Each structure stands twice: as structure tokens, then as C-alpha cells.
Amino acid sequence: GAAAPCLASIALARLGAEVVGVDASERAVDVARAHAKNAPFEGSLRYVHGSAEDLRQRFDLVVCSEVIEH
After folding, report:
1. DSSP string over the chain
2. Which of 58, 44, 55 is nearest to 14 (CA)?
């Protein structure tokens, strides 16, 4: 999900990664965007409302955080 682990997304983006956070909850995506709003790396971090299956792109790494336990 995007909102709860958005701190991990932000940390990865600060390290130079191109990060895409995905969450099925539109509210969670809004919260994540609010957390990252003032970040200096806006071009390398984006959040998407939907599911990973809907994304039609390749990734080098996929991290699922706070998904299975909920």
C-alpha cells in the first residue's frame, strides 16, 4: 500500500530510486501524496490509485508492505 509505508517510498526516492507507490485505496494515495508534497525529488516519486496488476510497466524491484497482514 502507498500510505502507511510511504516513508519507505520517500526514503527510496531520496536514495535516487524511481519509485511508484500503488494502493487500492484512493484515500491512502492522497495521504501518501500529502506526505511527499514538499519532497525535493518529485520527479522520482509518484503514487497511483489502483492495483499493481493494472500497471503496464516493468520494475527492477517490487516491495509489498502492509498487504498480507491486512
Report:
1. --STTHHHHHHHHHTT--EEEEES-HHHHHHHHHHHTT-TTGGGEEEEES-GGG--S--S-----SSTT-
2. 44
Is the separation of the CB atoms in 65 and 8 below 8 Å? Answer: yes
Write out pLDDT tens, residues 6-49.
888 888 888 888 999 999 889 989 988 988 887 777 568 989 99
Spatial distance between the Cα atoms of 23 and 52, rounded to a whole number of angstroms: 8
Q: What's the sign of the alpha-carbon dihedral 22, 32, 9, 15? A: positive
